[in-house]
Amino acid sequence: METTAVQQEIEHLSKTWNTAWLENDSATVDRLMAPEYVYVAPNGQILDRTAILGVILSPSYKLHHATWTELQIKVFSNDAAVILDRLQGTGTLNGKTFTDDNRCARVCLRRSGTWRIAFEQASPVKP
């Protein structure tokens, strides 16, 4: 297993994903999501791929500020890895402002040579 190479690929995937959300780049988010993508929100709600694309495509959605820190990459094989990080940011959706401070986990799978995010969960960080 080429752990260093996989870690670099996953770090690039993470940066691309985060930048796409910050820039409302729905085409990149769509491209990086696996067909079976599932998101578990900080409130426990389960959202599928269609629902998440609906968020980033919404004219009312905008991240005003976001930073991702505490990055850890766990490589399980040449085709499976997990990204762990912390997202802190603010934004608006449907006219309401939100503030996030979440630990996030993303399951990444490589299929036909291309990395995709198949599962994501965000858990609130309590002060």
Short description:
The protein has 127 residues and is of the alpha+beta class. 28% of the residues lie in helices and 54% in strands. A 6-stranded mixed sheet has the order 2-1-6-5-4-3.
How would you explain this protein's 3D organization?
With 127 residues, the protein is α+β, with helices and mostly antiparallel strands. Helix content is 28%, strand content 54%. It has helices spanning 3-22, 26-32, 49-57; strands spanning 33-40, 46-48, 62-77, 80-93, 96-111, 114-124. It has a six-stranded mixed sheet.
Task: Write the topology of this structure.
Layout: H1 3-22, H2 26-32, E1 33-40, E2 46-48, H3 49-57, E3 62-77, E4 80-93, E5 96-111, E6 114-124
Parallel strand pairs: 1-6
Antiparallel strand pairs: 1-2, 3-4, 4-5, 5-6
Helix pairs in contact: 1-2
Percentage of residues in strands = over 45%
Low-confidence stretches: none
For the largest beta sheet, what order do the strands appear in spatially?
Answer: 2-1-6-5-4-3
> How big is the Rg?
14 Å
- Oligomeric grouping of the chains: single chain
Could you tell me the number of beta strands?
A: 6
Total count of helical runs of at least 4 residues: 3
Distance between the termini: 39 Å
Shape: globular
Average pLDDT, rounded to a whole number, is 96
Q: What's the main sheet like?
A: 6 strands, mixed
Helix content: 25-40%
Structural class by secondary-structure content: alpha+beta
Helices and strands, in N-to-C order?
Answer: HHEEHEEEE
Keywords:
54% strand; six-stranded mixed β-sheet; 3 helices; 127 residues; single chain; alpha+beta
